[in-house]
Amino acid sequence: xxxxxxxxxxxxxxxxxxxxxxxxxxxxxxxxxxxxxxxxxxxxxxxxxxxxxxxxxxxxxxxxxxxxxxxxxxxxxxxxxxxxxxxxxxxxxxxxxxxxxxxxxxxxxxxxxxxxxxxxxxxxxxxxxxxxxxxxxxxxxxxxxxxxxxxxxxxxxxxxxxxxxxxxxxxxxxxxxxxxxxxxxxxxxxxxxxxxxxxxxxxxxxxxxxxxxxxxxxxxxxxxxxxxxxxxxxxxxxxxxxxxxxxxxxxxxxxxxxxxxxxxxxxxxxxxxxxxxxxxxxxxxxxxxxxxxxxxxxxxxxxxxxxxxxxxxxxxxxxxxxxxxxxxxxxxxxxxxxxxxxxxxxxxxxxxxxxxxxxxxxxxxxxxxxxxxxxxxxxxxxxxxxxxxxxxxxxxxxxxxxxxxxxxxxxxxxxxxxxxxxxxxxxxxxxxxxxxxxxxxxxxxxxxxxxxxxxxxxxxxxxxxxxxxxxxxxxxxx
Length: 478
Fold this sequence. Notes:
By secondary structure, this protein is of the alpha+beta class.
């Protein structure tokens, strides 16, 4: 009887393995993957055993899946209740009788990645107006100095060195500053007409962030293929490519070249409108190159919790937030708010999590650099650690979007087996599709997975469909 039982068990295991292998074989044989690199690792989070492995030690470009490393490190090391603080205060002497401030108003950046973000509109409200009100309550009626933004929390190299020039001027390539604002995003509004014509620029938002842009765009087709080329801290750039024809309104999103200068200018303008005269022109600490004297704080704006920020980061794949957290990790644990110091913290975190860093080549916090490379085994190992051993597992898992419902997974993984069952981070760059996250198999076993595909030649949808089929077979067979 026992021999028959174990015989049936071995047959069942063999059948399960064969079905899973056949699905994998079919996926790899698809013509879309001709010449592509594929790496797969699926592990049981109950005991860490591997249930499916294909070239899991190969180093591949992860795209935005790298954000799980940055967000996991930030939540574990800083804590889900960590907050950033931005403050307004003054230097010098305030004459309480006349209301004259002989000194500067100082906006001190605290590294908040989400200050004034549309994602957190309700949280921040009109915080700048609140600052004006607090200054009035403090008795400030005129300022002999200027509004100056202290943007010294991080270094003055906003963009990671290994990013592409094509990306930097666009919203998803916005740099990190000691004070960031409105997701460092500038809206450029257009009206387009017939094919081949030059689109008309109709406005900017915020208008104060406008800078000199040479319009080399062409109205063509129905898709957005427009790119902004401009460096950080610059006042000139150009727009090239195509945007949809025959549109009464179309918006292209660019990066703001100097957010610290923008907030100083915005606040200076608001003070003038409120009847508080400021004698000198607004500026930033980077430009002035000196440290202000003692600052008397009048008001402070607190960010949402880190758990709320990482949820938006991973749901919407916000590169800016990931790069901010990377520099904050560098500042808090290496004493320097730089990309390199943050990367050093990530490597240490991976080692502490028991992840072999061999095959990991990290160049930023968001995955935007095409020179990033990681292994599927390493990512699956990190996911195992975050679920089973991390102190802040719940916050991390909640930060991942749910299949077919949220964020970057809203338009995929709609099959019934994925519903309320799969949470993952996606990553996509040209010819790259990657996913890493969690699901529960039909048996009730919890699984962590990482699947990366680089340099495929067919359509992205074909690749995604193949990944969905492989995960579905694993759900059923395990």
